[in-house]
Amino acid sequence: MKKRILGTLFGFLALFGFGAIYYGILTADAAAEMMAQYEGCLHAPNMGLIVVGNILAAYLLVYVFDKMGVNDAKSGAYQGAMIMAIVFGVFQAFATAQYTFYDASFAMIEWVIGIIHGILGGAAIGAYNSKLA
């Protein structure tokens, strides 16, 4: 249990940290512009739900890595990328199908960002697991 809790914590820090840099700093102006343009369907992000989402994503990687025997940063990064490519790909497909402000280029960028999340979170969890192997 301790392994999963600490692995989730390290994964969360990597996922949330990258998200804070990308969404909170690099694309904050574009997001504010989009929220103003689509004010009827977008609102300011709920930080509590963002934290919960990052915890769940980190735990997904911890759980799957435990079952797969992922115990190093390199395989963690690779498997994290593969898992998040699927997770973010599913979301992007449904979002593109439903939301008018989503187009193929926006969805592709978000999908790649999701894969980067997987690489960083997976590497952090894999590196932590290597200390326990």
Can you give a write-up of this model?
The chain is mainly alpha-helical. It has helices at 2-26, 28-37, 47-68, 73-98, 104-132. The protein has one domain. It is built from 5 helices and no strands. The protein is elongated.
How are the elements arranged and paired?
Layout: H1 2-26, H2 28-37, H3 47-68, H4 73-98, H5 104-132
Gist of the model:
The chain has one domain. 84% of the residues lie in helices and 0% in strands.
Residue fraction in strands = under 5%
Order of helices and strands: HHHHH
How many structural domains does the protein architecture include? 1
Rg result: 16 Å
The largest sheet is:
none
First CA to last CA: what distance? 15 Å
> Helical stretch count?
5
Number of strands: 0
Fraction of residues in H or I helices = over 70%
Unreliable spans are none
* Class from helix and strand fractions: mainly alpha
Structural shape: elongated
The average pLDDT is 94
